[in-house]
Amino acid sequence: MTQPHAALIPWDKAASTTSVLDVAAVVALEQRIAEAGTSLLELMTRAGHAVAEAAVQLQPRDGAVVVLAGSGNNGGDGWVAAQNLADRGYAVTLVTKQAAPNLTAEPARTAALHALEEPKRTAFTILEDPDQTALTATIAQADLIIDAILGTGFAHSQVRAPYDTWIQAANAARADEGARILAVDCPSGLNAQTGTAADQCITADATVTMLAMKPGLLAPEAAAKTGQLLLAPLGVCEA
């Protein structure tokens, strides 16, 4: 059940026809798209559907999916993807530091509330502010981990708690249990502008990035963190 605007393009096929935009330029592009009539919430919904499409490509329906959702708008993409995958029949657990009503970033808060309030949605499990034992146990059971912790705005050398431990647990599950990791927009802990990795950084099998490719994802040193690069244009053109 492919969603509208959820097309994914492997970067090796898109590179000759698609621009690479600085992180700041993508933020400005989002604002221009919103001013032209496509809201940021609609863009987030499309992004979440694109993440779900990428997840379907990586993981058969008999596997368990764990979505690590940060408190910002990258996490909002994760909430949308969790609902979409649950509706497709996946067993989904979403890990969040804060309950949906307590989120402050928009449109992430609205997207998370929609995921909970959709009358016909298929329920997914929510693990709120887990301790290390619960977090490790949940992630260790995952066949696919969706990294929606930190977005392209991250530009630091260290990841703050608790997200540093989330990243550690996800990478350990990949290394020790064979779980695959799908990063949303940018592997958490990677600077999407420069390609520099923080002390804790997700090692993804695939990264689906939205609207345009960011330069840091193409840096040679970032290749070990991004895995396969997929572009989700979200049904809009650069403006």
Can you describe this structure?
37% of the residues lie in helices and 16% in strands. It has helices at 11-14, 23-35, 40-58, 73-87, 108-117, 132-140, 163-177, 223-226, and strands spanning 9-10, 64-69, 91-96, 125-128, 144-148, 180-184, 206-210, 228-232. It has an eight-stranded mixed beta sheet, sandwiched between helices. Strand 2 (64-69), helix 4 (73-87) and strand 3 (91-96) form a beta-alpha-beta unit. Helix 3 (40-58) packs across helix 4 (73-87), helix 4 runs parallel beside helix 5 and helix 6 packs parallel to helix 7. The longest helix is centred in the N-terminal third of the chain and has 19 residues, at 40-58. The mean pLDDT is 92.
Kindly state the number of beta strands: 8
Structural class: alpha/beta
Per the principal axes of the C-alpha atoms, what is the gross shape?
globular
Distance between the termini: 29 Å
Which H/E pattern describes the elements?
A: EHHHEHEHEHEHEEHE
- Biggest sheet: strand arrangement: 1-8-7-6-5-2-3-4
The helix fraction, in percent, is: 25-40%
- Biggest pleated sheet: 8 strands, mixed
State the low-pLDDT regions, or none: none
What is the radius of gyration computed over CA atoms, rounded to a whole number of angstroms? 16 Å
